[in-house]
């Protein structure tokens, strides 16, 4: 799992020096408390720039690496990447832009010369409105069911659209520098109807056979790419250390 540091409020002004020092203290405490959990594969300092200053990127990354030299550091997932840490992480809906030269603001293009792991921290978000009995039956949600990245009218169309974006991730693993992605999301939640399962867990949207085939193709993508190019005997850089994987958030 990717262990996030709880973010500061993105709607508040930038943190003052005392607030930033407290954030750093709690970040170090979180790492110390969770060092022994083997399921944690990386530490995530910021999400989409929430509470992020432009002057602390490398300082906080060094602190995290000194606290735990055994795990890579994802300085910021999503936006406002300034080159710190071991990952280049892109957030984009609905389609991925993982390890690619094309991008959308406020993300940035992947730079292979920086020797960083490219991941798609979030993508997907295809909505489908089920029957009212499958929803979180609260009027505030019912009034905003169409507030998602894309709405589909049937489960068949939901599968058609969602698998197109998983295919994009597969292709980016084969033809660019993508090492993994996180599809949003496992279940519908109170304010979003873009899950693999509905809020009551009664309706499963994915065509399992089709999704299983696509996921296996994602894992096979780097081997297919290697077959088209001369395989180097040099020590692999960081961008080659992770096999592509699809995770459901």
User: Total helix count?
Assistant: 5
Series of H and E elements: EHEHEEEEHEHEHE
Q: Report helical residue fraction.
A: 25-40%
| Low confidence ranges | 229-236, 239-243
Protein described:
With 249 residues, the chain is α/β, with parallel strands linked by helices. It has two domains: 1-85; 96-225, no CATH class. The chain is 30% helix and 17% strand. It has helices at 17-34, 57-67, 139-142, 155-175, 208-228, and strands at 2-4, 42-47, 73-77, 87-91, 117-124, 126-128, 150-152, 178-184, 246-248. The strands form three sheets. A four-stranded parallel beta sheet has the order 4-5-8-9, covered by helices on one side. A three-stranded parallel beta sheet has the order 1-2-3. Strand 8, helix 5 (208-228) and strand 9 (246-248) form a beta-alpha-beta unit. Helix 1 packs parallel to helix 2 (57-67) and helix 4 runs parallel beside helix 5. It is globular, with a radius of gyration of 19 Å. The protein starts with a strand and ends with a strand. The model is unreliable at 229-236 and 239-243 (pLDDT under 50). Residues 17-218 form the Glycoside hydrolase family 2 catalytic domain. This is Glycoside hydrolase family 2 catalytic domain-containing protein. GO terms for molecular function: hydrolase activity, hydrolyzing O-glycosyl compounds. Pfam families: Glyco_hydro_2_C. InterPro entries: GH, GH2_Domain-Containing, Glyco_hydro_2_cat.
């Amino acid at each position: 799992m990717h262990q996030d540091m709880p973010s500061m409020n993105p709607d508040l002004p930038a943190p003052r020096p005392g607030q930033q020092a407290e954030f750093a203290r709690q970040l170090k405490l979180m790492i110390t408390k969770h060092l022994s959990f083997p399921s944690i594969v990386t530490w995530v300092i910021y999400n989409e720039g929430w509470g992020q200053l432009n002057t602390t990127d490398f300082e906080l990354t060094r602190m995290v690496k000194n606290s735990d030299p055994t795990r890579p550091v994802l300085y910021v997932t999503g936006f406002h990447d300034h080159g710190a840490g071991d990952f280049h992480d892109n957030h984009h809906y609905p389609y991925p832009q993982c390890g690619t030269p094309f991008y959308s603001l406020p993300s940035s293009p992947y730079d292979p010369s920086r020797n960083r792991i490219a991941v798609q921290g979030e993508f997907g978000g295809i909505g489908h409105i089920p029957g009212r009995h499958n929803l979180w039956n609260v009027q505030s949600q019912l009034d905003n069911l169409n507030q998602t990245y894309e709405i589909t009218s049937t489960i068949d169309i939901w599968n058609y659209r969602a698998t197109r974006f998983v295919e994009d991730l597969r292709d980016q693993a084969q033809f660019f520098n993508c090492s993994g992605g996180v599809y949003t999301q496992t279940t519908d939640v109170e304010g979003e109807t873009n899950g693999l399962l509905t809020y009551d867990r009664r309706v499963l949207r994915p065509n399992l056979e089709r999704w299983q085939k696509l996921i296996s193709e994602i894992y096979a993508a780097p081997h297919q790419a290697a077959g088209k190019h001369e395989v180097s005997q040099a020590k692999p850089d960081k961008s080659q250390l992770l096999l592509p994987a699809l995770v459901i958030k």
